[in-house]
Design a protein that fits this description.
It contains 3 helices and 9 strands. By secondary structure, the chain is α+β, with helices and mostly antiparallel strands.
């Protein structure tokens, strides 16, 4: 199952500022494909390439690794944006430790998502 994480802000993120960001950082490459702007990032530890796609003014990545989540947080900090999960949870301050990202005062993010999903399922079944 895939999970989408987005870098968003009140004003739309534009192509020109992403191109400037990529050229300034050196860790990102820009590609244009099928009318989309794609921001590629390579994990320096594992060499795995992950891609952020600019869609309607937000930068989206599907099923990011912990390292890519940290990269998304860095992008957000530079662009005055925040990192948001597909359920609307703010991941801007999530601290990645090992393989289980956690947020201060929130516990493991995966457990939080599972609890929300269970509550929604119960609501749909009994409503």
């Amino acid at each position: 199952m895939s999970y989408v994480v987005s870098v968003v802000r009140d004003s739309l993120i534009g192509e020109a500022e992403l191109e400037e960001f990529a050229s300034d950082s050196g860790a990102f490459e820009i590609e244009r494909s099928d009318g989309f702007l794609i921001l590629h990032w390579r994990d320096p530890a594992e060499g795995k390439r992950e891609s952020f796609v600019l869609t309607d003014g937000s930068l989206d990545i599907t099923s990011p690794s912990d390292a890519a989540l940290v990269a998304a947080q860095e992008i957000a900090a530079r662009l005055g944006a925040r990192v948001v999960g597909e359920e609307g949870e703010d991941l801007s301050d999530v601290h990645v430790t090992g393989t289980a990202p956690t947020s201060a005062g929130c516990g493991p993010v995966a457990a939080t998502i599972a609890i929300i999903a269970a509550l929604l399922a119960a609501y749909w079944l009994f409503a």
